[in-house]
What we know:
Layout: H1 9-29, H2 34-48, H3 50-56, H4 61-77, H5 87-107, H6 109-114, H7 120-124, H8 126-149, H9 156-176, H10 180-189, H11 191-208
Helix pairs in contact: 1-2, 2-4, 4-5, 5-8, 5-10, 8-9, 9-11
Amino acid sequence: AIPSGRLTLTATATLGIFLLASSVIITGVADLSVPQKLLQLIVVVGIVAYNWIVRRLGLIKGLYTASLATIPFIFIAAPWNRTVPWLGFVLTVVLFMTGRELLMDVVDLRGDEADAVMTIPVRIGSRASQGIGFGLLYAGLVSLLLWARGNVGEAIPILVGVATVLVACLTCAWCMYHEAASRRTINTLLWSPMLCAIGAFVINIKATT
């Protein structure tokens, strides 16, 4: 939105500060457990520090982003303690999201080089980064399959199966289309198997609580 001119930098900064401040206030007054409030504050600090960390520690950009992405699931599971098996799912999110972010860095390679952002593709090259990225995606998929085996809910196998098919199809599409715009679209579509996994997680919570 900023590069297109639809939003000014001032408007974006004002909106961001407002949303972060609102989040902190709601966290303080909401009826949340202490672990949940702590997780919420970690997210706020993580978002505030995101650009600074990415700019200076580009090599851990994907892992940092993936780690932030796991917090909502820990937040949801926190009230039930060990009743909801969330650890395996969190591992799935970390692996899959790190792989997806690495593939996004492959697409953004030229821009990151121009801005002197030291991401993994800038350091080791596009081809090796793609291999690692897809390796992490499929490791996340295996982790999801293992997690699903030990959980209940009739729709979980269906959602996990759909996620598997989507990852396979998007892998083929990535290999077929090499233009940056096409690969950016494919990377965006990689959210779809993650959404299937989130659906399985929600179904499992309803079935076990």
